Amino acid sequence: MNNAPTQTRAMAPGRQKLLDAAFGLIREKGYVATTVDELCARAGVAKGSFFHHFKDKEALAIAAAQHWSEATGAFFAAAPYHDHKDPLDRVLGYIDFRRSILTGEIPEFTCLVGTMVQEIYDTHPAIRDACNSSISDHAAKIEADIAEAMKRHKIRARWTAKSLALHTQAVLQGAFILAKAKGGADIAISNVDHLRRYIELLFRPRTHKERTTP
Amino acid sequence: MNNAPTQTRAMAPGRQKLLDAAFGLIREKGYVATTVDELCARAGVAKGSFFHHFKDKEALAIAAAQHWSEATGAFFAAAPYHDHKDPLDRVLGYIDFRRSILTGEIPEFTCLVGTMVQEIYDTHPAIRDACNSSISDHAAKIEADIAEAMKRHKIRARWTAKSLALHTQAVLQGAFILAKAKGGADIAISNVDHLRRYIELLFRPRTHKERTTP
Question: Which terminus, N or C, of chain B has the lesser number of Cβ atoms within 10 Å?
Answer without folding.
Answer: C
